[in-house]
Amino acid sequence: MVLLKECLLCLKKSYPKRIRFFSDKIRESTYVGIVDAPVEEGQKKRGVSKAPQVLREAGLIQKLKEDCNVSVKDYGAIGFDGNIKSSSKKLPENMLNYERVVGYNKNLSEIVQKVINDGRICLTLGGDHSIGLGSVSGHCKAKGGENTALIWVDAHADINTNKTSDSGNIHGMPVALLAQDLIPYWSNLPFMDWHHSLLPLKNIAYIGLRSIDPYEEFLIQKMGIVCYDIYDVQKYGIDSVINESLRKIDPDGTKSIHLSFDIDALDPSDAPSTGTPVDGGLLLREGIYIASTIHKTGRLGAMDLVEVNPTLGDEEDVQKTINSALQVIAAAFGYGRRGLKPGLEDLKQVRF
């Protein structure tokens, strides 16, 4: 940054009448808080809990600082709530590891709320997608559900209830647990007094779906949830899909945006090391475009990156998946491919 300003000063001296001097307009760094959510209890495959550490070891924080002009505060890893492990309360049926997942998301919700209230964009590294319950809940508590818009990028809709799920995996239920409109569809959810279903369905948009259960399809249609599946992406193009999604769920352009990105939204050719891959997914460049477009709104409030499983596949598969995750994250925080770092967009206005 210092070197850039010196260069601009030299340009000003050399071309006093032919260049607009704008170094005072260079923006300060984006402030980001990173939270590790190494949860794998929301589904049955082991290994996804290793993802946060693997992403860090691959240089995530350095990439954010150097390539994205981001100021990073590390909030560390969230632990489990041990207070509800041995409860005598009747638990809901068909919800795998209910106590542990709910207790964990309670802690996560509190930390995400703190990160946002600290004036930082919260980046949560999963773990499986059950962490969307805590991360989005914390965002809604910080900003208000009516003022929060959720972009759910995923191969799956994750809007099952315990009555409709074939597996009982809670990573397939977080949207249903978050939605204000779906409160009547739930009963007997102990230990959830910390959670308020604050997010209206009109504030949610799906992108990239291609493996939807019949009940989920019915609910999306019945409730009129904004949804652009992979066929829509092919038909309309990713630019139209992301911009129309934002327009529909945030028509005034004022809401704090939560990007919840499941790596299995990408085609397995770009992200093979994930627990529930589905062929025919988004290309990596489309995932990057979604993240970059949200960054450019200036309204990104929080992001999840979930379901990277470094124990699945060979070394090449794992590296490919990690690289895809890093690129999507970097795009959400402003990394571009035209040589300019975030905060230097005004350089485009230089006239010689």
In short:
With 352 residues, the protein is an alpha/beta fold.
What does this structure look like?
With 352 residues, the chain is of the alpha/beta class. It has one domain: Arginase, Chain A, CATH 3.40.800. Helix content is 36%, strand content 14%. An 8-stranded parallel beta sheet has the order 2-1-3-8-7-4-5-6, with helices on both faces. Strand 7, helix 10 and strand 8 form a beta-alpha-beta unit. The two termini are 22 Å apart.
Q: pLDDT average, as an integer?
A: 90
Q: How many domains comprise the coordinates?
A: 1
Question: Into which percent range does the helicity of residues fall?
Answer: 25-40%
> What oligomeric state do these chains adopt?
single chain
**According to CATH, what is the class?**
Alpha Beta
Overall body shape = globular
Tally of DSSP β-strands: 8
Main-sheet strand order equals 2-1-3-8-7-4-5-6
Estimated radius of gyration: 21 Å
Task: Please give a handful of descriptors for the protein shown.
352 residues; alpha/beta; Arginase, Chain A; 14% strand; 8-stranded parallel β-sheet; 8 strands
